[in-house]
Amino acid sequence: MALSKEQQHSSSSADDQQAVLDAQVQLWHHTFGYVNSMALKAALDLRIPDAINQHGGSATLPQIVTKVTLHPSKTACLRRLMRVLTVTGVFSVQHSPADGGELVYGLTPASRLLVGSSLNVSPFLTLMLNTLFVSPFLGLHEWFQQEMPGPSPFKFTHGRDLWDMNDHDASFGKLFDKGMVADSGFIMDIVVKECGDVFKGISSLVDVAGGLGGATQAIAKAFPHVECSVLELSHVVASAPTGTDVKYIAGDMFESVPSANAVFLKGRHQTRSMWRRKSCLISSSCLSMVPSEMSKSGRILSSKLDLAITRLHLF
């Protein structure tokens, strides 16, 4: 049966109203998306994942409260925070008759990456959610109004680039180093399992600008026959860990690179323009360090992961 004009108009009007509501929801998701990030930051700062893990991977709110630093008056607020974290999949939640009907929060595959000593990405997420990293985005419109070339959003906001900030702010430097070690450890655990073939036939390797050697330590552990070393600036080498199978060498990659069968270049978190200007110098240094007798087997290994390049592109 054909619809009357009034029915067609009513249906069209309802569709238009639904489209408007859907559009509003989309904008609301963008506008309040930061709440998810800040809720995760609060969970990390309060060590909620550790609190749940210490209870065997699942815990009620009263059990969580006993393990975190929280003012008693904020318990009800913590319940709201946990609601955000369960909706976003950071934690799971279910009712438990055995606990008097209390909600029981559990670790999910995502939050299991926030606990333990192996594959723990908490230090990296804490770094990325730090105020120094978040604040440049609040003034991003002002950065777009400046002529190119110019400072990165990070330097535009703080007056220093990421690496200068790392050198001059001890607390941030410590946070940065821990974050990079955690990130390298996580990525390299996958790399050595999925791309282990590239290390076959190599007896020595130098990780250029390898920081505290998180990636190199993973390689040395997985391939004990490879003599691994890290080339870094002297102040970084001064804080490098001891008692490992990795050798730390102070130097500048733009001047020279120690001799080895292979050079390891990770996707460094710097702006692409910086790499365009200096990549030729890096390549020249790397090629010159490969011994002539190893010309056929000498390699430059590069883990240019798109994710790693994208993470701090703005910084």
Automatic annotation (TrEMBL):
It comes from the Eukaryota. Residues 139-266 form the O-methyltransferase C-terminal domain. One of its GO terms (biological process) is methylation. Gene3D superfamilies: Vaccinia Virus protein VP39 (3.40.50.150), Winged helix-like DNA-binding domain superfamily/Winged helix DNA-binding domain (1.10.10.10). Pfam families: Dimerisation, Methyltransf_2. Residues 28-116 form the O-methyltransferase dimerisation domain. The keyword Methyltransferase applies. GO terms for molecular function: methyltransferase activity. The keyword S-adenosyl-L-methionine applies. Keywords: Methyltransferase, S-adenosyl-L-methionine, Transferase. It comes from Urochloa decumbens. This is O-methyltransferase ZRP4.
